TrEMBL record:
InterPro entries: AAA+_ATPase, ABC_transporter-like_ATP-bd, ABC_transporter-like_CS, P-loop_NTPase
Protein name: Export ABC transporter ATP-binding protein
Gene Ontology molecular function: ATP binding; ATP hydrolysis activity
Record has ATP-binding as a keyword: yes
Domain of life where this protein originates: Bacteria
Keywords: ATP-binding, Nucleotide-binding
Domain ABC transporter residue range list: 2-233
Provenance organism: Pueribacillus theae
């Protein structure tokens, strides 16, 4: 397990990160979500031993990584936000260079380069110089470089910012496969709520340098509400039906307009069969039924009063 305990970073007395507690269990996929300037990059720079914390601890299986950075560096892959590639070199040559940083060479390095190029889908372009690559391909190569030494933990800092949808999907799929198939532990920072919702088992929400909420998606969503919003589309509207619906156990509020009905009900109330039965009694049909569940975006809005992207 990797854990950060009361991690803080101040730049010239100005808070960037304060009292961050965070852990990654082996094999987990964890999201670190927050708007620009929230402190995500600073947090992961400290976790990856690139930046010294002002205070706090980071432990890898109980061992202090600030005092002994070697252990974590061996098993950690970091994909930084800024591209760290040589534009004049080919994809292959870039990977060869990064491999040498990890002290890899010979057959082991060749094998690893082949494998990571396959993972990110760049085998066909390995001989091309990086300056001819699209933004998305460069990001994929950046990921490949972080994977060369087969890290057990992979930290990605907003890897999909500013790239085309196809490359974005490719990256998300790659990260998912690394986690689900290879068991790589993932820490994924993003300000795209839907990516974190899609990829991560657990989420930390960060704002102004602090963790303001943490938990599984379900736990975070439960902060928001104990209610479900159900929307019905009806074949016709009948006031008696609306009045009748209000009497159903678990229903808190009913709003009817034209052929639509919005029902606020206690979370988890299983109402569909009862509503269908009731509509039948009133000689009406339910044409459409759906439950609107709140998103993590709504949770962020609820906690901060702001949207994630401004
Ligand atoms: N080297 C530095 N010197 C001074 N201030 C810094 C430095 N690095 C970061 N900061 C400040 O710390 C705060 C957190 O920045 P950080 O880059 O960690 O946020 P972030 O959540 O990663 O945002 P982004 O999504 O824009 O990268 C910001 O106010 C930033 O200006």
């Amino acid at each position: 397990m990797l854990e950060a305990i009361r991690l803080s970073k101040f730049f010239k007395g100005k808070k960037a990160v304060q009292d961050v507690n965070l852990y990654l269990d082996n094999g987990e996929s964890v999201g670190l979500l927050g708007p620009n300037g929230a402190g995500k990059s600073t947090t992961i720079s400290m976790i990856s031993t690139l930046l010294k914390p002002t205070s706090g601890e980071i432990k890898l299986n109980g061992v202090n990584t600030i005092e002994k950075p070697g252990e974590i560096r061996k098993i950690l892959g970091v994909v930084p936000q800024e591209l760290a590639l040589y534009q004049e070199l080919s994809a292959y040559e870039n990977l060869k260079f990064f491999g040498s940083i990890y002290k890899m060479k010979g057959k082991e390095l060749e094998k690893s380069i082949r494998k990571v190029l396959e993972i990110v889908g760049l085998e066909d372009r390995q001989k091309d110089v990086v300056k001819t690559f699209s933004g998305g391909m460069k990001r994929r190569l950046n990921i490949a470089a972080a994977l060369l030494h087969q890290p057990q933990i992979l930290i990605l800092d907003e890897p999909t910012v500013g790239i085309d949808p196809q490359s974005r999907n490719h990256i998300l799929e790659t990260v998912r496969r690394l986690n689900e198939k290879d068991g790589t532990t993932i820490l994924y920072t993003s300000h795209y709520m839907e990516e974190v919702e899609q990829l991560c088992d657990r989420v930390y929400i960060m704002d102004h340098g602090e963790i303001i909420a943490a938990g599984t998606k379900a736990e975070l969503l439960s902060i928001l509400s104990t209610e479900d919003t159900i929307k019905l589309e009806l074949s016709r509207m009948d006031e008696a039906f609306a009045e009748h619906v209000k009497t159903i156990d678990g229903i808190r509020k009913v709003e009817a307009s034209h052929l639509q009905m919005k029902i606020i009900a206690k979370k988890g109330s299983n109402l569909i069969s009862e509503l269908v039965h009731l509509a039948d009694q009133h000689h009406m049909q339910i044409i459409n039924f759906h439950t609107e569940t709140p998103s993590l975006e709504d949770v962020f809005l609820h906690l901060t009063g702001r949207t994630l992207r401004n």
